[in-house]
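If you are new to this repository, start here. Below is one unmodified record pulled from the training split, so you can see the exact layout before writing a loader.
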Amino acid sequence: MCVAWPGTVIEVRDRKAVVDFSENRVEARTGLVEVEPGDRVLVHAGCILQKVSESEAEELMQLFHDLEESAG
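And here is the target side for that same chain:
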């Protein structure tokens, strides 16, 4: 199973972006999607797959949180 995690673009350099995931910052490739700082995005395996709205990102974060609680 593959999971794309929501994050926020902090910085864009060439074809890569720095994406913040709850204060963990990682570099992700932007080849599939044009992004700019402040965009909410889904990232999987180091690649930005798509932009999402703030409400979609929050809904996904809540879902992951609920799954974590039910598994624990």
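Two things worth knowing about this chain: The first strand starts at residue 5 and ends at 13. Strands lie at 5-13, 16-21, 24-29, 40-44, 47-52.
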